[in-house]
Amino acid sequence: MSSPTALPPRYQIRKLTLSDLPFAHAIITHANLFHNAVWSRLHASDAVERSYRVFNTGAYNTSHGIESGFSYGILDTEYQYKRPESAATNGAVYWDPELHPASSGQDLLEQMDFPLVSVALAYDPVATPLDMVKFQLVFDALPLFPKLVSITEAHDIRPPEERKPKEVGECLFRCGTATRADYEGKGLARALAAHLMTEAKKAGFKATQVGTVNNRLNAIWERVPGQVRGVEGAKSRVVSVVDLETYEEEEVREDGKVRKVNPFLGAKVVRKCIYVTL
């Protein structure tokens, strides 16, 4: 079987460690607030300021994924550092509004000076469950995140007892994917998805599951399973679908009248939960 996910030699996939935390979190923060169909639309007016907030207070999801031991990244081994001081520390993030003021997503991207270019976070929800108290800081920075989770669960076609794994090593939950804007279109997310499936299979997992807010990721996770060496028999199943462009819910106005609103402002993306049997 030919691999649809092979990368040029300059790119290296490896497991993430906590030394990668600031770089991985900067990638995820920047991708969410400037290139995600939902968050970039909702927070366009304060994206730079919110990026600082998410980066400084909302790193729990990223650190938890890294500490789980099932998160991976792609490094550009031919990366050219922009500043000599970055090279001296194997990378740096210059997100400091006082020392290095930024006024746009492009400014923040220029201040991301490190060779990590794409990340995929995952964890075993039974072995290392999320601490929702610590996760609250992420919800505070992205207020509609809890709603996104709840409506995804509400549209899940599986019986409630089948939605969460019961044993360690049963299902690996994906909890974040992002590629730097200056490296998009190179097949990095596709390669990481294939690698994650392969490593999950090797570790004995029966399945992996991903919640998306990106139409391109939908295509990857629906099509890549079954095309990867080592997991040729993998099959994807979409278990929840919410079209955020047409989604509506009722809102009671101050005058008591009920109207239908789209809290996601018509973001043109289909939210999916995809379960992949390995």
Structure notes:
This is N-acetyltransferase domain-containing protein. GO terms for molecular function: acyltransferase activity, transferring groups other than amino-acyl groups. Residues 171-219 form the N-acetyltransferase domain. The longest helix has 15 residues, at 21-35. The protein starts with 10 loop residues before the first strand and ends with a strand. Strand 9 and strand 10 form a beta hairpin. Helix content is 34%, strand content 22%. The relative contact order is 0.17. Helix 1 runs antiparallel to helix 3 (47-57). It has helices at residues 21-35, 39-42, 47-57, 60-68, 84-88, 105-110, 132-141, 145-154, 188-202, 215-223, and strands at 11-15, 72-76, 92-93, 112-113, 116-123, 171-179, 207-212, 235-243, 249-252, 258-261, 270-277. With 278 residues, it is of the alpha+beta class. It is globular, with a radius of gyration of 19 Å. The strands form three sheets. A seven-stranded mixed sheet has the order 1-2-5-6-7-11-8, with helices on both faces. It has a two-stranded antiparallel sheet with strand order 3-4. The chain has a two-stranded antiparallel sheet with strand order 9-10. The mean pLDDT is 94. The protein has a single domain (11-277), classed as 3-Layer(aba) Sandwich (Aminopeptidase).
